């Protein structure tokens, strides 16, 4: 039996919804990434999350327009190729090929840390590797079955967030107006007015925390009637994701009975639950959080595996590598080799440690937002986007996204310890990718981007 060379359009909107929300993991966003925003900004997290959630929801319209114009596997990359051309898309592809296993490695180590909270004494790396093996086993299943499995896990983490929201609503401590008008943070355990620069950094973190609509584009080649469906679906996902992540975080700040104790904790949301709901309920929710992280890792591997697959199918790399990555399993119609490549790279990158992984992960949104906005501006003018779905109020949406990206660049440059080195690393990666692309363009086996006709209808 001949191995199929394309993915199959077998997913409906509900299954895409399950996969996307499992990947972005609202519970992980609130309990892990939200912790970082709370520690950074104190009660200023309310303003940061409101602004970050709004920017993430606005950017979803750009993903929607480009995804509808180019409904293929690989996330944003096929859209950038189709609008900006391979010269500008290739550095982004290179960055994502590195960023994908980096994100996975960081998540795997975080999973191990939470497991060790529940079962003290377990070694970090073996737990992370065990999680990786299990997650990879689920990720190579038939995509429809994978969507159902992750959907069941997703229901559990949504229940945990609903419980957190209900508890916060039942214990109001301060008004929304006071949190917005007089934000305070803890500086060496002393409450002080929040500096504007720190608030800016918190907004950058909140954008990453509330984002997630782009995950739908990784499965665009497997959505039935994708050109018509994916645009509205992505916009709904963008707004809903920002809402379900931002609301619990805002309510935690507004209902916290002891701000100094909660904001001074390494895990503010868990400390809040301990203080308000008690240790037993907090332990139960921590167990759900471990499941949520595992669920997000499974779908992350599935999505990034499709990114690797699409680069192989399009011949981005030298021919032997591209052929391997483009293989699709006959029974499951899953990109087996590409998925395994993501898993092996993730296992290797775990050896770098969480700090190094986090520095690079934090910077990947900046070039993506810049290229995304430019692609929509050029795509509208050239007619390459805006057909099946149009972002409203053009050109306001891409311009707002460019302003947000400019703010992220400024915040990174002001952070000498981590932000500036990470930004320089991204720049170096782009320059090196351009040099390689120019070198490869002189050879007969140079990359020729695939057209929409290469994708199964």
TrEMBL record:
It comes from the Bacteria. It is found in: Membrane. InterPro entries: AA/rel_permease1, AminoAcid_Transporter. Its main location: membrane. It is a multi-pass membrane protein. The chain crosses the membrane at residues 12-33, 45-64, 76-109, 121-141, 148-170, 196-218, 230-254, 283-309, 330-351, 357-379, 391-413, 419-437. Keywords: Membrane, Transmembrane, Transmembrane helix. It holds the Pfam family AA_permease_2. PANTHER family: AMINO ACID TRANSPORTER (PTHR11785), SOBREMESA, ISOFORM B (PTHR11785:SF512). This is Amino acid transporter.
């Amino acid at each position: 039996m001949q191995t199929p060379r394309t993915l199959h359009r077998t997913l409906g909107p509900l299954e895409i919804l399950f996969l996307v929300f499992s990947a972005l993991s609202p519970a992980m966003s609130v309990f892990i990434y939200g912790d970082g925003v709370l520690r950074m900004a104190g009660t200023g997290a309310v303003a940061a999350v409101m602004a970050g959630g709004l920017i993430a929801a606005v950017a979803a319209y750009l993903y929607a327009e480009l995804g509808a114009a180019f409904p293929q596997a690989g996330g944003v990359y096929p859209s950038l190729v189709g609008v900006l051309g391979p010269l500008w898309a290739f550095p982004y592809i290179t960055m994502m090929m590195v960023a994908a296993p980096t994100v996975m490695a960081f998540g795997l180590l975080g999973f191990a840390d939470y497991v060790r909270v529940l079962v003290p004494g377990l070694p970090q790396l073996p737990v992370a590797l065990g999680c990786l093996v299990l997650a990879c086993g689920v990720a190579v299943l038939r995509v429809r079955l994978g969507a159902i499995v992750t959907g069941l896990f997703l229901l559990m983490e949504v229940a945990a967030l609903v419980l957190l929201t209900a508890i916060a609503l039942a214990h109001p401590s301060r008004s929304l107006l006071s949190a917005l008008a007089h934000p305070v943070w803890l500086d060496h355990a002393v409450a002080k007015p929040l500096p504007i620069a720190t608030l800016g950094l918190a907004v950058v973190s909140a954008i990453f925390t509330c984002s997630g609509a782009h995950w739908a584009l990784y499965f665009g080649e497997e959505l039935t009637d994708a050109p018509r469906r994916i645009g509205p679906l992505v916009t709904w996902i963008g707004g809903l994701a920002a809402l379900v992540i931002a609301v619990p975080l805002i309510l935690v700040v507004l209902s916290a009975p002891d701000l100094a104790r909660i904001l001074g904790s390494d895990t503010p949301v868990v400390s809040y639950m301990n203080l308000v709901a008690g240790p037993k309920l907090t332990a139960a929710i921590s167990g759900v959080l471990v499941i949520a992280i595992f669920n997000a890792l499974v779908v992350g591997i599935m999505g990034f595996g499709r990114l690797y697959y699409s680069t192989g199918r399009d011949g981005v790399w030298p021919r032997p590598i591209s052929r391997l990555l483009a293989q699709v399993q006959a029974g499951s119609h899953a990109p087996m080799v590409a998925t395994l490549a993501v898993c092996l790279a993730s296992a290797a990158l775990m050896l770098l440690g969480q700090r190094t992984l986090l520095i690079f992960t934090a910077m990947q949104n900046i070039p993506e937002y810049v290229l995304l906005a430019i692609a929509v501006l050029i795509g509208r003018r050239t007619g390459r986007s805006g057909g099946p779905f149009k972002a409203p109020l053009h050109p306001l949406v891409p311009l707002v996204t460019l302003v947000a990206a400019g703010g992220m660049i400024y915040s990174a440059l002001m952070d000498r310890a981590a932000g500036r080195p990470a930004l320089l690393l991204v720049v170096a990666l782009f320059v090196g990718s351009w040099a390689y692309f120019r070198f490869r363009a002189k050879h007969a086996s140079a990359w020729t981007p695939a057209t929409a006709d290469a994708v199964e209808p």
